[in-house]
Structure to design on (628 residues):
């Protein structure tokens, strides 16, 4: 039994243009101590998956129309708001994309970490403060006693993201959702933050769901990968398999888009691969595969039938009709 | 500690920072000093200058400086003007400050609820909320405030608490609108979401996360609303809608208005006191505005 399992999750949003199915039967699972990467283009439902797990889908306009999220054996979709509050931050916590705006500007960072602790544990404010300082030390910020009294504006982006990580990990969650934690940061800082995440994860055996659009990050960090497209998971496997032998045409395209230094010996440079077209609006998805209009291996049947996830070897599932056809990839 | 680090890691809280800016403004400091002086005189003055402001002690309408016993003259009944000015401050300030407090409490509560729960953001989880789009506020805003306050005071009784409540009840909508706007701006910021993701409740988010961030403009408007409330109280007293048994500056102006042509001091002196008080409050409010929004200075 997986630690956290998302099963056939469906989320709809009411928009002016009609109902948009932002998550369409999404299934994922993470084991303790595992890092699962969710990768895909903007708007493919990565962040929405994260918010649904925490029960934070804005409603209305959003609505969880089906499926389940199991933490251990408890279905979080059916859990009460009070129960969700116990879970958020304590069992599952989240790091947001923008460290510049995710901290409250009028409280010192130490107070903010302590506040998170006091929401979950009945400890004295003095004890919470000490623990906050310990957390700041744990995320590798020098002079934690002094730094804990700093306000967010006195810190750099990387430093703030460390504070966010300290906040998220303060209560020792079993699952950490990191929603593009380094997108707003410099590349060098990015590497530091990932090293930190990895180290803390190994220390505490935390499961991490890492949302990103960067294949490089996936390669560096993740054990498993789920590739999403237009609200559906279209391929899942181990990182190795996804990188070396992707089977879904979209995944193949994504990987081909990443520039390689070695592949261009001499001056014969190929132009960088790109996937033609754009993600269709979620309100205009037809009966067929959402990727069909952009797919190089498009078949007539793709327009009428939605592909389902099919196993191709151990822990490798792909949703593509062209593969189901018996075609070699 | 190895060396004194070159970058000042010493934290400055936003309030301390604001005080730093405030301190550098001469006008604001002057206003603060004036306000403190007025408050101290109103509180301690009656203990030092013990003449009863209601007792008739000299000939009516004695001009200031004519008699040593009544240095600032007497009013139309022969009551000591100086005693009136010293004692009247307490009532005026008490009404002004408590009316402003009522304004702020009603205004921020309603504005916060409307801003936080209103509109689409969280509607689904709260099928019923009392102030969906400030319709209540609009209802209060279309009533002419002075008239409405007069009705309230006449309906109940012209005592100071009623006057304070009436002023508060008619002047909260402006504060509510300001609070609502701030809450709407802040409720969708990422740190509010972040707070929610570590399981903060709605109450916690409203009072502990959003309100502290919404405070600067609210503090400024609250300060200014003290001045407005003082003027309001003076206006009501002038119209005779205040407690006739308690001396206030407004009451002094109101009861002396018939004699304004023969005895300028009867109306002018309490008028000057009101002017100084409102001026000092406004200067402090302006200073606070600069302190919280340094970018808007010299606007």
């Amino acid at each position: 039994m997986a630690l956290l399992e998302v099963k056939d999750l469906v989320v709809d949003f009411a928009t002016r243009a009609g109902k948009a199915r932002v998550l369409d039967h999404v299934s994922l699972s993470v084991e303790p101590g595992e890092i699962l990467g969710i990768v895909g283009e903007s708007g493919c439902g990565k962040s929405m998956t994260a918010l649904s797990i925490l029960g934070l889908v804005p409603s209305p306009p959003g609505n969880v129309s089906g499926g389940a999220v199991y933490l251990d054996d408890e279905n979080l979709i059916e859990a009460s708001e009070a129960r969700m509050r116990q879970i958020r931050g304590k069992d599952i916590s989240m790091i947001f994309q923008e460290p510049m705006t995710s901290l409250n500007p009028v409280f010192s960072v130490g107070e903010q970490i302590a506040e998170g602790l006091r929401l979950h544990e009945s400890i004295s404010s003095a004890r919470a403060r000490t623990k906050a300082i310990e957390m700041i030390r744990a995320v590798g910020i020098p002079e934690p006693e002094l730094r804990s009294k700093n306000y967010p504006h006195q810190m750099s982006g990387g430093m703030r993201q460390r504070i966010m990580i300290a906040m998220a990990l303060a209560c020792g969650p079993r699952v950490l959702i990191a929603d593009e934690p380094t997108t707003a940061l410099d590349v060098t800082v990015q590497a530091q933050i990932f090293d930190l995440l990895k180290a803390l994860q190994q220390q505490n055996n935390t499961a991490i769901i890492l949302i990103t659009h960067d294949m490089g990050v996936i390669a560096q960090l993740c054990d498993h990968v789920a590739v999403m497209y237009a609200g559906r998971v279209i391929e899942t496997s181990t990182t190795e398999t996804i990188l070396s032998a992707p089977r879904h045409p979209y995944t193949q395209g994504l990987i081909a888009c990443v520039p390689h230094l070695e592949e261009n010996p001499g001056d014969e440079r190929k132009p960088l691969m790109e996937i033609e077209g754009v993600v269709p609006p979620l309100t205009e998805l037809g009966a067929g595969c959402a990727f069909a209009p952009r797919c190089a291996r498009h078949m007539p049947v793709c327009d009428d039938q939605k592909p389902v996830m099919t196993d191709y070897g151990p822990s490798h599932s792909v949703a593509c009709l062209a593969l189901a056809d018996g075609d070699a990839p | 500690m190895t060396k004194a680090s070159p970058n000042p890691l010493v934290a400055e809280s936003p309030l301390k920072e604001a005080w730093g800016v405030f301190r550098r403004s001469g006008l604001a400091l002057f206003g603060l000093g004036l306000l403190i002086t007025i408050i101290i005189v109103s509180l301690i003055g009656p203990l030092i200058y013990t003449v009863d402001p209601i007792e008739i002690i000299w000939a009516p309408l004695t001009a200031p400086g004519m008699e040593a016993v009544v240095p600032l003259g007497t009013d139309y009944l022969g009551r000591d003007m100086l005693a009136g000015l010293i004692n009247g401050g307490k009532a005026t300030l008490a009404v002004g400050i408590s009316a402003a407090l009522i304004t702020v409490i009603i205004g921020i509560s309603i504005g916060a609820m409307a801003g936080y729960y209103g509109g689409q953001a969280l509607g689904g989880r709260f099928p019923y909320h009392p102030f969906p789009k400030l319709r209540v506020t609009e209802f209060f805003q279309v009533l002419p405030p002075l008239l409405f306050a007069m009705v309230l005071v006449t309906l109940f009784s012209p005592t100071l608490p009623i006057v304070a409540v009436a002023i508060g009840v008619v002047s909260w909508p402006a504060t509510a609108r300001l609070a609502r706007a701030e809450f709407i701006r802040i409720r969708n910021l990422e740190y509010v979401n972040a707070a929610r993701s570590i399981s903060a409740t709605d109450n916690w988010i409203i009072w502990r996360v959003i309100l502290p961030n919404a405070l600067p403009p609210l503090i400024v408007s609250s300060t200014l609303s003290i001045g407005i409330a003082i003027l309001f109280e003076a206006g009501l007293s002038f119209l005779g809608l205040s407690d006739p048994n308690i001396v206030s500056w407004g009451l002094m102006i109101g009861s002396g208005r018939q004699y304004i042509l023969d005895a300028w001091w009867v109306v002018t002196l309490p008028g000057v006191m009101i002017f100084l008080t409102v001026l000092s409050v406004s200067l402090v409010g302006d200073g606070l505005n600069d302190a919280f929004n340094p970018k808007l200075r010299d606007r």
